[in-house]
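#struct-pred

JT: dropping the chains for the assembly here, can someone run the whole complex?
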Amino acid sequence: MKLQHSNTRKLALLSVLAALCLAIQLTPRPPNVEFTSFFTFIVGLIYGALNGAFFGCFVMFVNGFLSPYGFSGLNMPFQMVGMAITGILGGVYKSHISERDNSARFCIEAAILGAFSALIFDLITNAGVSFSYILAGMDPILALLTAVAYGTFFSIIHISSNTTVFGVLTLPSIKALDNLIGGGELWLRKDHSYLQH
Amino acid sequence: MVEKRSLVFATLATIVWAVSISSLAAYFYLQNATYSEQIAENQQSLNTMAVNYNEAMTKRNTLLSEYSMLYGNYSFPLGTNFTLLTKLFNILMDNLKGNYSYLLMNQKDLNETYHALLNQTITINQKGNVTREEFGELLNEFYELFNLLAIRELSRIISETVTLTASICIIYENGTEKWHNKTSIPTGSSLFQLTQKIAKVNYTYSAWMKPGHIRLTAINDETEYTEYKTGYSEGRAWIWYYWDDNKQEWLSGPVGCDAWMLKDEDIYKWNFEYWRWP
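RK: done, full complex below.
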Protein backbone atom coordinates (compact mmCIF):
# COMPACT_ATOMS: atom_id res chain seq x y z
CA MET A 1 0.00 0.00 0.00
CA LYS A 2 2.85 2.36 0.88
CA LEU A 3 4.64 1.49 -2.36
CA GLN A 4 1.47 2.22 -4.32
CA HIS A 5 1.18 5.68 -2.65
CA SER A 6 4.80 6.34 -3.40
CA ASN A 7 4.38 5.43 -7.05
CA THR A 8 1.27 7.61 -7.40
CA ARG A 9 3.09 10.53 -5.84
CA LYS A 10 6.05 9.95 -8.09
CA LEU A 11 3.87 9.77 -11.19
CA ALA A 12 1.98 12.93 -10.20
CA LEU A 13 5.21 14.83 -9.59
CA LEU A 14 6.74 13.66 -12.86
CA SER A 15 3.56 14.68 -14.73
CA VAL A 16 3.56 18.13 -13.14
CA LEU A 17 7.26 18.60 -13.90
CA ALA A 18 6.80 17.41 -17.50
CA ALA A 19 3.86 19.81 -17.96
CA LEU A 20 5.92 22.61 -16.41
CA CYS A 21 8.83 21.86 -18.74
CA LEU A 22 6.62 21.91 -21.81
CA ALA A 23 4.85 25.09 -20.70
CA ILE A 24 8.22 26.83 -20.28
CA GLN A 25 9.44 25.43 -23.59
CA LEU A 26 6.42 26.94 -25.33
CA THR A 27 6.84 30.32 -23.61
CA PRO A 28 8.63 32.99 -25.65
CA ARG A 29 12.22 33.23 -24.36
CA PRO A 30 15.70 33.95 -25.63
CA PRO A 31 17.06 31.10 -27.77
CA ASN A 32 18.80 28.35 -25.81
CA VAL A 33 17.70 29.64 -22.42
CA GLU A 34 15.74 26.64 -21.16
CA PHE A 35 14.68 24.91 -17.95
CA THR A 36 14.06 21.41 -19.29
CA SER A 37 17.59 20.24 -18.54
CA PHE A 38 17.28 21.64 -15.04
CA PHE A 39 14.06 19.73 -14.33
CA THR A 40 15.48 16.61 -15.97
CA PHE A 41 18.54 16.87 -13.76
CA ILE A 42 16.31 17.30 -10.68
CA VAL A 43 14.27 14.23 -11.65
CA GLY A 44 17.50 12.25 -12.07
CA LEU A 45 18.71 13.55 -8.74
CA ILE A 46 15.53 12.54 -6.93
CA TYR A 47 14.37 9.40 -8.72
CA GLY A 48 17.59 8.08 -10.22
CA ALA A 49 19.33 7.95 -13.58
CA LEU A 50 16.76 5.74 -15.35
CA ASN A 51 13.80 7.95 -14.43
CA GLY A 52 15.81 11.06 -15.25
CA ALA A 53 16.75 9.68 -18.66
CA PHE A 54 13.16 8.66 -19.41
CA PHE A 55 11.85 12.06 -18.27
CA GLY A 56 14.35 13.91 -20.49
CA CYS A 57 13.53 11.71 -23.49
CA PHE A 58 9.81 12.16 -23.03
CA VAL A 59 9.89 15.94 -22.68
CA MET A 60 12.13 16.36 -25.73
CA PHE A 61 9.92 14.00 -27.73
CA VAL A 62 6.80 16.07 -27.02
CA ASN A 63 8.71 19.33 -27.39
CA GLY A 64 9.85 18.16 -30.82
CA PHE A 65 6.27 18.50 -32.04
CA LEU A 66 5.20 21.60 -30.14
CA SER A 67 8.31 23.79 -30.10
CA PRO A 68 7.77 27.39 -31.25
CA TYR A 69 10.94 26.97 -33.34
CA GLY A 70 9.11 24.31 -35.38
CA PHE A 71 9.12 20.55 -35.72
CA SER A 72 12.58 19.28 -34.79
CA GLY A 73 12.40 16.41 -37.30
CA LEU A 74 15.73 14.72 -37.89
CA ASN A 75 17.23 16.35 -34.81
CA MET A 76 14.63 14.96 -32.40
CA PRO A 77 16.44 11.67 -31.56
CA PHE A 78 19.61 13.65 -30.87
CA GLN A 79 17.74 16.04 -28.58
CA MET A 80 16.20 13.07 -26.74
CA VAL A 81 19.58 11.42 -26.23
CA GLY A 82 21.14 14.72 -25.14
CA MET A 83 18.46 15.33 -22.55
CA ALA A 84 18.56 11.71 -21.36
CA ILE A 85 22.24 12.19 -20.57
CA THR A 86 21.32 15.16 -18.38
CA GLY A 87 18.92 12.93 -16.44
CA ILE A 88 21.63 10.28 -16.10
CA LEU A 89 24.05 12.93 -14.85
CA GLY A 90 21.53 13.80 -12.11
CA GLY A 91 21.27 10.13 -11.15
CA VAL A 92 25.05 9.65 -11.12
CA TYR A 93 25.54 12.82 -9.07
CA LYS A 94 22.98 11.55 -6.56
CA SER A 95 25.16 8.56 -5.75
CA HIS A 96 28.19 10.78 -5.07
CA ILE A 97 26.65 13.31 -2.73
CA SER A 98 28.07 13.13 0.74
CA GLU A 99 26.47 14.17 4.00
CA ARG A 100 29.54 16.31 4.68
CA ASP A 101 28.92 18.57 1.64
CA ASN A 102 27.94 22.15 2.30
CA SER A 103 25.54 24.40 0.35
CA ALA A 104 28.24 26.37 -1.45
CA ARG A 105 29.94 23.24 -2.73
CA PHE A 106 26.62 21.74 -3.79
CA CYS A 107 25.71 24.90 -5.74
CA ILE A 108 29.11 25.06 -7.45
CA GLU A 109 28.99 21.40 -8.42
CA ALA A 110 25.41 21.76 -9.68
CA ALA A 111 26.49 24.78 -11.74
CA ILE A 112 29.40 22.81 -13.27
CA LEU A 113 27.09 19.90 -14.04
CA GLY A 114 24.63 22.33 -15.61
CA ALA A 115 27.37 23.71 -17.86
CA PHE A 116 28.62 20.21 -18.68
CA SER A 117 25.13 18.90 -19.48
CA ALA A 118 24.52 21.91 -21.76
CA LEU A 119 27.82 21.24 -23.52
CA ILE A 120 27.03 17.55 -24.05
CA PHE A 121 23.49 18.35 -25.20
CA ASP A 122 24.77 20.95 -27.68
CA LEU A 123 27.48 18.67 -29.03
CA ILE A 124 24.95 15.89 -29.59
CA THR A 125 22.33 18.14 -31.19
CA ASN A 126 25.02 19.78 -33.35
CA ALA A 127 25.95 16.28 -34.46
CA GLY A 128 22.26 15.95 -35.44
CA VAL A 129 22.46 19.17 -37.43
CA SER A 130 25.65 17.97 -39.11
CA PHE A 131 23.82 14.79 -40.07
CA SER A 132 21.54 16.85 -42.32
CA TYR A 133 24.65 18.50 -43.85
CA ILE A 134 26.08 15.02 -44.50
CA LEU A 135 22.84 14.01 -46.19
CA ALA A 136 23.23 17.10 -48.37
CA GLY A 137 26.62 15.76 -49.47
CA MET A 138 29.10 17.46 -47.13
CA ASP A 139 32.18 15.69 -45.80
CA PRO A 140 31.24 14.23 -42.33
CA ILE A 141 34.11 15.80 -40.37
CA LEU A 142 33.67 19.17 -42.03
CA ALA A 143 29.92 18.92 -41.46
CA LEU A 144 30.42 18.27 -37.74
CA LEU A 145 32.99 21.05 -37.37
CA THR A 146 30.78 23.49 -39.25
CA ALA A 147 27.72 22.63 -37.14
CA VAL A 148 29.67 22.94 -33.88
CA ALA A 149 31.41 26.15 -34.97
CA TYR A 150 28.25 27.90 -36.15
CA GLY A 151 26.38 26.78 -33.03
CA THR A 152 29.05 28.25 -30.74
CA PHE A 153 27.24 31.43 -29.79
CA PHE A 154 24.03 29.55 -29.04
CA SER A 155 26.06 27.03 -27.08
CA ILE A 156 27.70 29.77 -25.01
CA ILE A 157 24.27 31.20 -24.18
CA HIS A 158 23.07 27.71 -23.25
CA ILE A 159 26.08 26.96 -21.07
CA SER A 160 25.90 30.33 -19.31
CA SER A 161 22.17 30.10 -18.65
CA ASN A 162 22.41 26.47 -17.48
CA THR A 163 25.31 27.32 -15.16
CA THR A 164 23.22 30.06 -13.59
CA VAL A 165 19.97 28.10 -13.41
CA PHE A 166 21.59 24.95 -11.99
CA GLY A 167 23.79 26.90 -9.57
CA VAL A 168 20.98 29.06 -8.22
CA LEU A 169 17.87 26.87 -8.41
CA THR A 170 18.97 23.30 -7.70
CA LEU A 171 19.33 23.63 -3.93
CA PRO A 172 16.04 25.49 -3.25
CA SER A 173 14.20 23.19 -5.66
CA ILE A 174 15.52 20.09 -3.93
CA LYS A 175 14.43 21.47 -0.58
CA ALA A 176 10.96 22.39 -1.91
CA LEU A 177 10.48 18.98 -3.52
CA ASP A 178 11.74 17.28 -0.40
CA ASN A 179 9.03 19.05 1.59
CA LEU A 180 6.46 18.21 -1.07
CA ILE A 181 7.11 14.50 -1.26
CA GLY A 182 8.07 14.13 2.40
CA GLY A 183 11.51 12.66 1.92
CA GLY A 184 10.12 9.57 0.26
CA GLU A 185 13.14 9.06 -1.95
CA LEU A 186 16.52 7.61 -1.17
CA TRP A 187 18.91 10.47 -0.66
CA LEU A 188 16.27 12.85 0.64
CA ARG A 189 15.88 10.63 3.67
CA LYS A 190 19.20 11.95 4.86
CA ASP A 191 19.42 14.85 7.23
CA HIS A 192 19.58 18.02 5.11
CA SER A 193 21.04 20.19 7.79
CA TYR A 194 24.45 19.84 6.11
CA LEU A 195 23.09 21.68 3.09
CA GLN A 196 22.45 24.77 5.17
CA HIS A 197 25.96 25.21 6.59
CA MET B 1 45.56 16.87 -0.71
CA VAL B 2 42.81 17.61 -3.21
CA GLU B 3 40.06 15.02 -3.07
CA LYS B 4 39.13 13.02 -6.16
CA ARG B 5 35.63 14.52 -6.48
CA SER B 6 36.97 18.06 -6.59
CA LEU B 7 39.38 16.98 -9.30
CA VAL B 8 36.54 15.46 -11.30
CA PHE B 9 34.53 18.70 -11.15
CA ALA B 10 37.58 20.80 -11.94
CA THR B 11 38.18 18.55 -14.97
CA LEU B 12 34.55 18.89 -16.08
CA ALA B 13 34.73 22.68 -15.78
CA THR B 14 37.99 22.67 -17.77
CA ILE B 15 36.45 20.49 -20.49
CA VAL B 16 33.49 22.87 -20.78
CA TRP B 17 35.85 25.85 -20.99
CA ALA B 18 38.22 24.16 -23.46
CA VAL B 19 35.48 22.93 -25.80
CA SER B 20 33.70 26.30 -25.74
CA ILE B 21 36.89 28.22 -26.52
CA SER B 22 37.86 25.71 -29.23
CA SER B 23 34.40 26.04 -30.81
CA LEU B 24 34.71 29.80 -30.69
CA ALA B 25 38.13 29.58 -32.38
CA ALA B 26 36.68 27.22 -35.01
CA TYR B 27 33.81 29.66 -35.58
CA PHE B 28 36.15 32.60 -36.15
CA TYR B 29 38.39 30.46 -38.35
CA LEU B 30 35.43 29.43 -40.53
CA GLN B 31 34.12 33.00 -40.67
CA ASN B 32 37.57 34.21 -41.67
CA ALA B 33 37.79 31.52 -44.37
CA THR B 34 34.31 32.41 -45.65
CA TYR B 35 35.05 36.15 -45.74
CA SER B 36 38.40 35.57 -47.46
CA GLU B 37 36.64 33.51 -50.11
CA GLN B 38 33.97 36.19 -50.55
CA ILE B 39 36.61 38.91 -50.83
CA ALA B 40 38.45 36.87 -53.48
CA GLU B 41 35.18 36.34 -55.39
CA ASN B 42 34.33 40.04 -55.16
CA GLN B 43 37.81 40.96 -56.37
CA GLN B 44 37.37 38.58 -59.28
CA SER B 45 33.99 40.15 -60.10
CA LEU B 46 35.51 43.63 -59.96
CA ASN B 47 38.33 42.59 -62.27
CA THR B 48 35.87 41.05 -64.71
CA MET B 49 33.73 44.18 -64.51
CA ALA B 50 36.77 46.37 -65.24
CA VAL B 51 37.66 44.27 -68.30
CA ASN B 52 34.06 44.31 -69.55
CA TYR B 53 33.86 48.05 -68.94
CA ASN B 54 36.95 48.62 -71.06
CA GLU B 55 35.48 46.52 -73.87
CA ALA B 56 32.16 48.39 -73.66
CA MET B 57 33.90 51.76 -73.78
CA THR B 58 36.00 50.68 -76.76
CA LYS B 59 32.85 49.60 -78.61
CA ARG B 60 31.08 52.82 -77.70
CA ASN B 61 33.98 55.04 -78.74
CA THR B 62 34.38 53.24 -82.08
CA LEU B 63 30.69 53.58 -82.90
CA LEU B 64 30.64 57.17 -81.65
CA SER B 65 33.55 58.00 -83.97
CA GLU B 66 31.70 56.52 -86.95
CA TYR B 67 28.56 58.40 -85.96
CA SER B 68 30.52 61.61 -85.50
CA MET B 69 31.99 61.31 -88.99
CA LEU B 70 28.54 60.82 -90.48
CA TYR B 71 27.12 63.69 -88.41
CA GLY B 72 29.95 65.93 -89.66
CA ASN B 73 28.99 65.20 -93.26
CA TYR B 74 25.36 65.87 -92.38
CA SER B 75 26.13 69.17 -90.61
CA PHE B 76 28.16 70.63 -93.46
CA PRO B 77 25.97 69.71 -96.38
CA LEU B 78 27.77 71.59 -99.10
CA GLY B 79 27.02 69.43 -102.07
CA THR B 80 26.35 66.43 -99.83
CA ASN B 81 24.55 63.54 -101.40
CA PHE B 82 22.29 62.26 -98.59
CA THR B 83 21.34 59.20 -100.63
CA LEU B 84 25.02 58.25 -100.57
CA LEU B 85 25.23 58.96 -96.86
CA THR B 86 22.40 56.50 -96.16
CA LYS B 87 24.70 53.73 -97.40
CA LEU B 88 27.21 54.75 -94.72
CA PHE B 89 24.33 54.91 -92.28
CA ASN B 90 23.44 51.30 -93.16
CA ILE B 91 27.00 50.27 -92.30
CA LEU B 92 26.66 52.15 -89.00
CA MET B 93 23.43 50.28 -88.29
CA ASP B 94 25.16 46.96 -89.04
CA ASN B 95 28.00 47.85 -86.72
CA LEU B 96 25.50 48.80 -84.02
CA LYS B 97 23.79 45.44 -84.41
CA GLY B 98 27.11 43.59 -84.37
CA ASN B 99 28.38 45.35 -81.26
CA TYR B 100 25.18 45.13 -79.25
CA SER B 101 23.85 41.83 -80.60
CA TYR B 102 23.41 40.35 -77.08
CA LEU B 103 21.24 43.24 -75.91
CA LEU B 104 19.26 43.39 -79.12
CA MET B 105 18.55 39.68 -78.92
CA ASN B 106 17.58 39.64 -75.26
CA GLN B 107 15.81 42.94 -74.70
CA LYS B 108 12.58 43.06 -76.63
CA ASP B 109 11.99 46.80 -76.37
CA LEU B 110 15.45 47.62 -77.76
CA ASN B 111 15.02 45.04 -80.49
CA GLU B 112 11.74 46.63 -81.56
CA THR B 113 13.26 50.11 -81.55
CA TYR B 114 16.18 48.85 -83.66
CA HIS B 115 13.88 47.20 -86.17
CA ALA B 116 11.63 50.27 -86.36
CA LEU B 117 14.69 52.36 -87.20
CA LEU B 118 15.87 49.74 -89.69
CA ASN B 119 12.47 49.72 -91.41
CA GLN B 120 12.49 53.52 -91.51
CA THR B 121 15.95 53.39 -93.14
CA ILE B 122 14.82 50.83 -95.71
CA THR B 123 11.74 52.90 -96.55
CA ILE B 124 13.82 56.02 -97.04
CA ASN B 125 16.38 54.09 -99.11
CA GLN B 126 13.69 52.64 -101.33
CA LYS B 127 12.30 56.09 -101.94
CA GLY B 128 15.52 57.01 -103.72
CA ASN B 129 16.10 60.70 -103.17
CA VAL B 130 16.88 61.25 -99.49
CA THR B 131 16.35 64.73 -98.08
CA ARG B 132 18.42 66.43 -95.38
CA GLU B 133 15.48 66.35 -92.94
CA GLU B 134 14.88 62.64 -93.47
CA PHE B 135 18.54 61.86 -92.92
CA GLY B 136 18.66 64.12 -89.85
CA GLU B 137 15.72 62.24 -88.37
CA LEU B 138 17.51 58.92 -88.94
CA LEU B 139 20.61 60.23 -87.20
CA ASN B 140 18.59 61.47 -84.21
CA GLU B 141 16.80 58.15 -83.84
CA PHE B 142 20.09 56.31 -84.14
CA TYR B 143 21.76 58.46 -81.50
CA GLU B 144 18.91 57.87 -79.03
CA LEU B 145 19.03 54.13 -79.57
CA PHE B 146 22.82 54.11 -79.40
CA ASN B 147 22.80 55.96 -76.05
CA LEU B 148 20.16 53.64 -74.67
CA LEU B 149 22.17 50.60 -75.77
CA ALA B 150 25.34 52.01 -74.22
CA ILE B 151 23.55 52.61 -70.91
CA ARG B 152 21.99 49.13 -70.95
CA GLU B 153 25.39 47.62 -71.76
CA LEU B 154 26.99 49.34 -68.77
CA SER B 155 24.05 48.33 -66.58
CA ARG B 156 24.44 44.75 -67.76
CA ILE B 157 28.10 44.82 -66.76
CA ILE B 158 27.20 46.15 -63.31
CA SER B 159 24.35 43.64 -62.98
CA GLU B 160 26.89 40.81 -63.10
CA THR B 161 28.07 42.04 -59.70
CA VAL B 162 25.11 43.88 -58.21
CA THR B 163 21.41 43.04 -58.00
CA LEU B 164 18.80 45.59 -57.00
CA THR B 165 15.38 45.26 -55.44
CA ALA B 166 12.26 47.24 -56.20
CA SER B 167 8.68 47.13 -54.96
CA ILE B 168 5.70 47.46 -57.26
CA CYS B 169 1.95 47.61 -56.79
CA ILE B 170 -0.78 46.89 -59.32
CA ILE B 171 -4.13 48.55 -58.72
CA TYR B 172 -6.97 46.94 -60.66
CA GLU B 173 -10.27 48.43 -61.77
CA ASN B 174 -12.13 47.12 -58.72
CA GLY B 175 -9.59 48.79 -56.44
CA THR B 176 -7.73 45.62 -55.53
CA GLU B 177 -4.07 46.36 -54.78
CA LYS B 178 -1.51 43.65 -55.37
CA TRP B 179 1.96 44.42 -53.96
CA HIS B 180 5.17 42.72 -55.03
CA ASN B 181 7.65 43.79 -52.42
CA LYS B 182 11.43 43.74 -52.73
CA THR B 183 11.50 42.02 -56.09
CA SER B 184 15.08 41.21 -57.11
CA ILE B 185 16.05 42.25 -60.61
CA PRO B 186 19.38 42.78 -62.39
CA THR B 187 20.82 46.28 -62.36
CA GLY B 188 20.02 48.13 -65.55
CA SER B 189 16.51 46.75 -65.82
CA SER B 190 13.68 49.03 -66.83
CA LEU B 191 10.25 49.36 -65.25
CA PHE B 192 8.92 47.42 -68.24
CA GLN B 193 11.19 44.47 -67.39
CA LEU B 194 10.17 44.62 -63.73
CA THR B 195 6.49 44.63 -64.69
CA GLN B 196 7.05 41.71 -67.06
CA LYS B 197 8.72 39.83 -64.24
CA ILE B 198 5.84 40.14 -61.78
CA ALA B 199 2.82 40.07 -64.10
CA LYS B 200 1.50 38.90 -67.43
CA VAL B 201 1.54 41.94 -69.71
CA ASN B 202 0.36 42.88 -73.20
CA TYR B 203 1.82 45.93 -74.88
CA THR B 204 2.07 47.91 -78.06
CA TYR B 205 5.07 49.60 -79.61
CA SER B 206 4.48 53.27 -80.36
CA ALA B 207 7.10 54.84 -82.58
CA TRP B 208 5.78 58.36 -81.92
CA MET B 209 6.15 58.03 -78.16
CA LYS B 210 9.59 58.81 -76.74
CA PRO B 211 11.69 58.39 -74.73
CA GLY B 212 10.44 54.84 -74.37
CA HIS B 213 8.20 53.30 -76.99
CA ILE B 214 6.30 50.68 -75.00
CA ARG B 215 2.72 51.24 -73.85
CA LEU B 216 1.12 48.57 -71.70
CA THR B 217 -2.35 47.63 -72.87
CA ALA B 218 -3.09 44.88 -70.34
CA ILE B 219 -1.75 43.64 -67.03
CA ASN B 220 -2.85 40.20 -65.88
CA ASP B 221 -5.64 40.15 -68.47
CA GLU B 222 -7.12 43.47 -67.33
CA THR B 223 -7.18 45.20 -70.74
CA GLU B 224 -7.48 48.92 -71.47
CA TYR B 225 -10.66 50.07 -73.16
CA THR B 226 -12.31 53.10 -74.71
CA GLU B 227 -16.05 53.83 -74.87
CA TYR B 228 -17.28 56.39 -77.35
CA LYS B 229 -20.25 58.39 -76.08
CA THR B 230 -22.08 61.34 -77.60
CA GLY B 231 -19.68 64.27 -77.51
CA TYR B 232 -17.01 62.58 -75.48
CA SER B 233 -15.15 59.35 -74.95
CA GLU B 234 -13.97 57.68 -71.80
CA GLY B 235 -12.12 54.56 -70.72
CA ARG B 236 -9.37 53.13 -68.62
CA ALA B 237 -5.64 52.78 -69.29
CA TRP B 238 -2.59 51.57 -67.40
CA ILE B 239 -0.63 54.51 -66.01
CA TRP B 240 2.51 54.16 -63.94
CA TYR B 241 3.69 56.19 -60.96
CA TYR B 242 6.83 56.27 -58.89
CA TRP B 243 7.18 57.14 -55.23
CA ASP B 244 9.22 60.31 -54.68
CA ASP B 245 11.01 59.93 -51.37
CA ASN B 246 11.86 63.62 -51.07
CA LYS B 247 8.35 64.89 -51.81
CA GLN B 248 6.74 61.91 -50.09
CA GLU B 249 4.14 61.50 -52.82
CA TRP B 250 3.35 59.48 -55.94
CA LEU B 251 4.45 61.16 -59.16
CA SER B 252 3.23 60.26 -62.61
CA GLY B 253 5.76 58.46 -64.84
CA PRO B 254 7.33 61.07 -67.15
CA VAL B 255 8.59 58.63 -69.85
CA GLY B 256 7.64 55.26 -71.32
CA CYS B 257 8.08 52.40 -68.88
CA ASP B 258 10.82 50.85 -71.04
CA ALA B 259 12.96 53.99 -70.82
CA TRP B 260 12.74 54.29 -67.04
CA MET B 261 15.74 52.62 -65.41
CA LEU B 262 15.25 51.17 -61.93
CA LYS B 263 17.22 52.17 -58.85
CA ASP B 264 17.65 50.10 -55.73
CA GLU B 265 14.70 50.29 -53.28
CA ASP B 266 12.46 52.09 -55.82
CA ILE B 267 8.69 51.88 -55.36
CA TYR B 268 6.25 51.89 -58.29
CA LYS B 269 2.58 51.42 -58.97
CA TRP B 270 0.52 50.66 -62.04
CA ASN B 271 -2.95 52.15 -61.80
CA PHE B 272 -5.80 51.14 -64.10
CA GLU B 273 -6.87 54.71 -64.43
CA TYR B 274 -10.13 56.26 -65.62
CA TRP B 275 -9.90 58.94 -68.32
CA ARG B 276 -12.40 61.10 -70.21
CA TRP B 277 -11.94 63.28 -73.29
CA PRO B 278 -12.70 66.06 -73.85
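JT: nice. Chain B has six helices and nine strands. The longest strand of chain B covers residues 232-244.
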